[in-house]
TrEMBL record:
Family annotation (Pfam families): adh_short
InterPro entries tied to this protein: NAD(P)-bd_dom_sf, SDR_fam
Name of the protein described by the UniProt record: SDR family oxidoreductase
PANTHER family reported for this sequence: DEHYDROGENASE/REDUCTASE SDR FAMILY MEMBER 1, DEHYDROGENASE_REDUCTASE SDR FAMILY MEMBER 1
Amino acid sequence: MTTLKNKVAIVAGATRGAGRAIATKLGETEATVYVTGRTTRHELSPMQRRETIEETAELVNEAGGHGIPVQVDHTDEQQVQQFIKKVKKDQNGQLDILVNDIWGGDPLTEWGKDIGEHSLDMGLQLHKQAVLSHIITSHYAVPLMKKNNKGLIIEITDGTDYQYRGNFYYSLAKISNIHMAYATAQDLKDYNITSIALTPGFLRSEAMLELFGVTEDNWEEGAKVEPHFIASETPFYIGEALKHLALDPQVRRFNGKTLSTWGLSEIYDFKDIDGTQPHWGNYYEEHVK
């Protein structure tokens, strides 16, 4: 397939980074894409970032799709319920793709602190944003897919296995996202609904560029701060990966699995926005592990 015209997608957590790129790439397929998040042109989230859901929707439109920005705090059950009611009404009950990308956990993660030292409030808030929000969103969105007996659910995570990720709360959240994809696949095995976890490699997001004091034009300089940054990838790489999954008529062969940008680049032969084909899996085995 080359188009998702007349298909409806939700990218939950599409204000910036991977979510924004995923929404934009779905726009390239001519899909209708609801982009949600907390930051609008009139109201900042606690993240205090400048990117907005309206900007993301405009990028979807420019790419060829139909972007619809809706302010939603996905940790608020009532807001999510009302949002899904809106989608159901606007799209006559149709929902084809759900991407759970809500995160916002960077300022809540205290690296270098163990479970007894880490702020409990921040750790629990991280899980509220990165795990509970995904559960709430799926709870209200899945019935639309079940009614139509079709759909694709993607859980965005970090890593492909159950290994420790350097911080108790961070590790538990990302592994939870992986198991959520698997458990959802088992729950919905009698429906034509595919559930997958998808991870990027070292993501070269807007926030990461700022952290290292570089731009996309000179991003390699960031490797002077963090050597492994040299193997990083832009958010558009995971956007491209998800676009190929969404267009694949045989995507159900991946049901319940955890996939990666680098692995899918070998299957679908796509490249990052700069023409490279980063492979964090190989780099990790050779230089990090």
